[in-house]
Design goal:
single chain, 466 residues, alpha+beta, Uridine Diphospho-n-acetylenolpyruvylglucosamine Reductase, domain 3
Length: 466
């Protein structure tokens, strides 16, 4: 382990003790929740009935072991801090979610994805072991061999089975640069077919592909972004200044080329929160020139969005213009790749939101997971099957009923044997939710590790917004 490990472990142990003390201080009748300085959840929630749990000592990288290719991190450590600690060793997490303030524990108890997911799966698959504060008030170590029922049920439980206090995760080697090919498609079907071939073969036109995602701007304008590791020196682009990454993808035909440092590639989407910074004027050339670079990041826009929601600024402006309020449609869904073109055609015809992000994934099957058939019951996508994460984040005019557009999307996703992430608003009935999100496995883990229901129920949290 690296030199500061002893001090870091001592500090971490003190942080765990503060967490436990704050847990014991929560009245037995109150719900225990984390006191989080940031959040990447996009659903309303009820006001807490007790002080949040103290996570102030659980934000650091504890140790990086370059020889073993692992890192020990506290549950509230952000990927921004983790990447800063691993890149000097030429290493990175197997999957680095797109936004800097996503925490490692959050990506595991929720879901994370990025352009390595077509070969590395989802973040929880790279967890070797983790220490979890359970609803029973105990910190236990879980892995594929120790308390495997909690290890497997933890992903997609969103803190309702416990909180990750420490995680040991696998790392992979990276090169200093990423060479990019941005391939233009004039057909959704052709784009998805090409993506399927890259997932199956790991290459495009005979060149290896290490990173793969895509953007759809319209039915006849879509792009695959193909990244290849390289140590070759050369000029690199900078999308933290006036240039905007997603706009760099667009060209008339064929293939365009680009290069980024590995650091800037990993955070290419954070600077403008994909394309959502446009809603705050941050992409206007004049405004951007005076928008401090340190505030060109997803956490800044998320803060502005929370203020907008708190004071209903958007709906107030709509009323002044004589227009109805708007429904938030902020979702990521996983569609089997063979149904992805069908879903995209339906979406473009029925939901007025573009651009759309595409990110393919296949479960990795490490630690006896998917390979052994054990899987991840609370998000039961099929091992060995290719999926595409389809991300869309905007608003639409309200319909005749609450969440009308979101409900239509949920139905279409289910018809195509897909799944929806739970970080935003959901509208499922209890029966639908139970079937889609591993109800039996969840109840068994809940009964064992949170027998007195000190933590929220998953349906109450994800759908009932408690």
């Amino acid at each position: 382990m690296s030199a500061p490990a002893i001090d870091a472990h001592t500090a971490h142990a003190a942080g765990v003790e503060r967490l436990l003390e704050s847990y014991r201080a929560v009245p037995p009748t109150a719900t225990a929740r984390l006191a989080k300085p940031t959040s990447n959840l996009f659903r309303s929630r009820a006001k807490a009935d007790a002080p949040g749990l103290d996570t102030s000592g659980l934000t650091d990288v504890i140790a990086v072991d370059p020889e073993a290719g692992t890192a020990d991190v506290a549950g509230m450590c952000t990927y921004e801090d983790l990447v800063a600690a691993t890149l000097p060793h030429g290493l990175a997490p197997l999957v680095v979610p797109q936004l800097k303030t996503i925490t490692v524990g959050g990506a595991v108890t929720g879901l994370g994805i990025e352009s390595t997911s077509f070969r590395n799966g989802l973040p929880h698959e790279s967890v070797v072991e983790m220490d979890v504060l359970t609803g029973a008030g105990e910190v236990i170590t879980v892995s594929a061999d120790r308390h495997p029922e909690l290890y497997r049920a933890f992903p997609n439980s969103y803190g309702t089975l416990g909180y990750a206090v420490r995680l040991r995760i696998e790392l992979e080697p990276v090169d200093p640069f990423v060479a990019l090919r941005q391939v233009r498609f004039h057909s959704i079907d052709d784009l998805v077919a090409a993506m399927d071939r890259v997932v199956a073969t790991g290459e495009f036109d005979g060149v290896p592909v290490d990173y793969l995602d895509g953007v759809v701007f319209s039915a006849d304008e879509g792009y695959l972004s193909l990244g290849t590791r390289t140590a070759a020196p050369g000029a690199v682009s900078d999308y933290t200044g006036q240039s905007i990454y997603y706009r760099s993808l667009q060209h008339d035909d064929g293939v365009s080329h680009d290069r980024l440092t590995i650091h800037d590639y990993l955070w290419r989407w954070d600077t403008d929160w994909f394309w959502c910074s446009e809603a705050f004027g941050a992409q206007h050339p004049t405004i951007r020139r005076f928008w401090p670079r340190r505030y060109r990041r997803s956490s800044s826009y998320a803060t502005l969005m929370r203020l907008e929601r708190r004071f209903d600024i958007g709906d107030r402006l709509e009323r002044l213009k004589g227009r109805p309020p708007r429904e938030r449609v902020i979702q990521d869904v996983e569609i089997p790749i063979e149904g992805t073109a069908e879903f995209l055609h339906w979406f473009l015809e029925n939901v007025p939101i573009q651009p759309i992000w595409l990110c393919p994934l296949r479960l990795r099957g490490a630690h006896g997971g998917a390979a052994s058939g054990a899987g991840w019951p609370l998000y039961p996508i099929t091992p060995g099957r290719s999926y595409v994460n389809v991300g869309f984040w905007s608003t639409v005019p309200v319909g005749a009923s609450d969440g009308e557009t979101n409900r239509r999307i949920e139905r279409r996703v289910s018809e195509l044997d897909g799944h929806k992430s739970l970080y935003s608003e959901s509208f499922y009935s209890p029966e639908e939710f139970d079937e889609l999100y591993g109800g039996d496995a969840y109840r068994a883990a809940k009964a064992r590790f949170d027998p007195d229901s000190r933590l929220l129920d998953l349906y109450a949290k994800a759908v009932q917004r408690r």
